[in-house]
Amino acid sequence: MEKTLSSRIRDQFISSVEKDSKVKNAFLLVYNGALGIHVNEYYGTNSTVDQPYYIASIGKVFTSVIIGQLVEKKLIGYEDKVLNILGNSIVDGLHTVKGINYISEVTIRHLLNHTSGIGDYFSDKPIHGKPMLELIHESPYKHYSPLEIVQWSKTNIKPRFKPGKGFHYSDTGYHLLGLVIEKILNMPLAEVMEKNIFSPLDMKNTALASNEKSGKIDEGDICDVYWGENNVKDYSIFKDDYAGGGIITTSSDLLLFVRAIINHQIINESTLNEMTKWSKYSSVKLIGIAYGLGLMYLKSTPLLFPKKFSSFGHIGSIGSFMFYNPTTKTYLIGSVNRFQYHRKSMNIMFNALKEIMKIYLT
Asked: Whole-angstrom Cα distance, residue 130 to residue 126?
């Protein structure tokens, strides 16, 4: 008996992760309403189908959506200067290149699409001292507040270029966006996320990791995350990721979120159009990826990557992904819960998409 499309997607996913000893647990959700596909699969002895997991930098999409909502309400503008919102005491010292202070030129748009030139506290080599990743390894439970991260960046991380003249992925920039949101609304980011996104979309299993008072998620239920051979899910890095990726959620909740974006439930169509204006700049580290306002675009490449596979959404540093493919109107969500394992998660996603293309294009 011929397998159904959903069965083929499931089997392919399980086969892919089972033969990779580095993958301890994984998730895949594939949804296409027109084709009647709703695969929600998991792998791992300590996992369940709708187990909460960290999504890392997919959280940047949430931050961008909230900024978009503020723009729609005319509480802020994409071209507004960050200095004018947060003030000198927070941002001065973050952006001096060749003796010239450019911080007054940095806009909200620059931070959203990583063209500000501000360095990245998470992955950049510091001017002196140990890199942040090494500090995290040495003291995994040390907590850094958003303001402490910004201050550490001022002292240790070198800016890259004049605002608007290049691309450099910056979690420090997204910390600033979180502070901007809190300043404009006079409310903690966790509460804003709950009020503006989680509650309206009935995302009952989603919370900002730093919001320990939410009561929505038992920390013991969160999926394990691996860094080498170490299970690091309790490291403070996840709570400290803040507006750059500090969200815990489930595949089903992420589907509610991305569908709400595509169907203009939580932002207007005009805002989505702004988010999908891809920067002309790119990064050597992100080959084949263009960046908009909090969204990544997987660009087509002749022969290697046909245009029909082009999708937008975001990936996370722990092999998490959330994408929408406009050609087939397919949503692809999941994670392999392992640091620096993007290739594996992308293979899982595109293998599923290839199966759908076989049906869609016939």
From this structure: 7
Cβ atoms of 93 and 157 within 8 Å: the answer is no
> How does DSSP assign 58-117, residue by residue?
GHHHHHHHHHHHHHHTTS--TT-BHHHHH-HHHHTTS-EETTEE-GGG-BHHHHHTT-S-
Q: Are 211 and 295 in the same domain?
A: yes
pTM of the predicted protein model: 0.96
For the chain, the straight-line distance linking the first and the last C-alpha, in angstroms and rounded, comes to: 21
pLDDT one-digit tens code per residue, 110-147? 999 999 999 999 999 999 889 998 999 899 999 999 99
Count of structural domains within the chain: 2
Residue 19 counted as domain residue = yes
| DSSP secondary structure letters along 206-236 | -EETT-TTS-SS-GGGSPP-EETTEE-TTST
The residue segments making up the domain with residue 301 are 5-58+202-360
Q: Are residues 228 and 170 in the same domain?
A: no
